[in-house]
Design a protein that fits this description.
- With 438 residues, the chain is mainly alpha-helical.
- It is 76% helix and 0% strand.
- It is built from 17 helices and no strands.
- Helix 11 runs parallel beside helix 16.
- The longest helix is centred in the middle third of the chain and has 37 residues, at 265-301.
- It is globular.
- It starts with 10 loop residues before the first helix and ends in a 9-residue tail after the last helix.
Length: 438
């Protein structure tokens, strides 16, 4: 049976449409991100921009605070048959758990603010930004509120509506730009600039959840009807995915924190401006890769082989990664100079390291969405532990000789050793088939 003959949308169409939507939204999100960075640098200065980027990084942990249940929701929704309410039950269970997760984040955030102080935790004590402790706490409170809303995008992905999820996600950066421009135009204190990106992401998550809940006939009352709308097996895959998410977060989201403790604010600014380029570029790859998840999940349920699709997509994604890396090395320093209005000189080394990371991640991406059975995610989760343990020390050691390139080099090394190699071995052993049972 070909892709076209399979139930649900064929892989080529789904991935291709996801890529096209990302291409269409990319100019808007990229311009919004770049313009926001330029406004902050021009209004608050490069060192304040570097400090605020550390605070804003906290909001990037929202996807990792879903306790791993998003993985189970994607699998449940994508494999649900007509008339089956397993997707609705999975969503209700997920929202229950995420409400607790959000509450825990709020409690921890308040406790740390009262006992230690978030500026000390983030190594921002020496920043002359009035209201910084209160702003950091405000960001953390917003994160706690946003966590339950993150399940909407997972539901849309499971419904083979990943292109819709991508389009909605573009709302966040654009709202963030509007908020940033409003603060600058009103002449408000620079510390307020940490809020627009977080509020923009929260608004996008709300829109995605409203649409997703409507598609699966989910009601708020379902959250409280535990007996009727429960999915007891959700955490079976979720706990492993949670481990994978936490380990990945510590490995890939720690670059700013590592440089904040080991390097100067100038180097931190170089890394921050490079991340402004890396994040929207990598989101293009993530968009296409995520679209493959429900397709592999449904094939696994149908006990169908996926060798041709798997290897074809691996070649396509890896080739695109190499091309992207070449463009980053050639154009990255110029883009950074434009964004920073000539105040931040990155050089080519940091963009070379960034490109190497994208090549490694693009190769691994298809492996990751292929191994999404319970056993597959458990395999990835166990290998994520040495990944996290290795990447941060490597970044610390290399931060002196490599500067802003160190986190990228460390992450690329970890991806190769602890994701690509073990995943490749596992897939070869199971014959690159999607019928691995849970």
């Amino acid at each position: 049976m070909s892709d076209a003959d399979a139930p649900g949308p064929p892989a080529r169409r789904t991935v291709g449409l996801s890529a096209l939507v990302r291409v269409a939204t990319f100019p808007f999100t990229a311009i919004a991100a770049f313009a926001s960075a330029a406004l902050i640098i021009g209004y608050a200065g490069p060192t304040s921009y570097a400090a605020m980027s550390v605070v804003i990084t906290l909001s990037q942990l929202v996807p990792y605070a879903d306790l791993g249940v998003g993985a189970g929701v994607i699998n449940a929704v994508s494999t649900a048959r007509p008339g089956d309410d397993s997707g609705r039950r999975a969503a209700a269970s997920a929202v229950r758990l995420l409400l607790l997760s959000g509450a825990a984040i709020v409690i921890i955030g308040v406790a740390v603010a009262a006992l230690v102080g978030w500026p000390s935790v983030l190594s921002l004590d020496d920043q002359n930004l009035a209201g910084l402790p209160e702003a950091i706490l405000g960001v953390i409170l917003l994160i706690g509120v946003t966590v339950p809303l993150g399940i909407g995008q997972r539901i849309l992905t499971g419904l083979f509506l990943n292109p819709t999820a991508i389009a909605i996600s573009a709302v966040g950066p654009m709202l963030g730009l509007i908020g940033t421009a409003s603060i600058v135009g009103a002449g408000l204190p620079p510390v307020f600039l940490v809020f627009p990106p977080v509020l923009g992401s929260a608004a996008a998550a709300l829109i995605a959840s409203m649409l997703a809940f409507r598609r699966i006939s989910f009601r708020a009352a379902d959250v409280f009807r535990v007996k009727s709308f429960g999915s007891p097996g959700l955490l079976r895959i979720g706990l492993w995915y949670l481990l994978l998410s936490i380990a990945s977060a510590s490995a890939f989201q720690s670059g700013r924190l590592v440089l904040a403790h080991t390097s100067s604010l100038e180097i931190l600014a170089q890394f921050a401006i490079t991340m402004q380029v890396y994040s929207p570029v990598w989101s293009f790859f993530a968009a296409g890769g995520t679209a493959l998840w429900p397709i592999f999940s449904r094939r696994r349920m149908q006990n169908r082989a996926s060798s041709p699709l798997f290897f074809r997509m691996t070649v396509i994604f890896a080739s695109a990664g190499v091309l992207c890396a070449a463009c980053l090395v050639a154009l990255g320093p110029w883009v950074a100079a434009v964004l920073s209005q000539g105040t931040i000189d990155t050089g080519r080394l940091v963009f070379l390291a960034c490109g190497i990371l994208i090549v490694a991640q693009s190769f691994q991406l298809v492996q990751g969405v292929f191994l999404t059975s319970q056993r597959g995610i458990r395999h990835q989760a166990l290998w994520s532990l040495p990944l996290a343990v290795t990447v941060i020390p490597l970044a610390l050691v290399w931060s002196v000789p490599a500067g802003a390139a160190a986190p990228f080099i460390a992450a690329a090394t970890g991806v190769t050793l602890f994701q690509i190699v073990p995943n490749f071995i596992r897939i070869r052993r199971q014959g690159a088939r999607s019928n691995e049972s849970d």
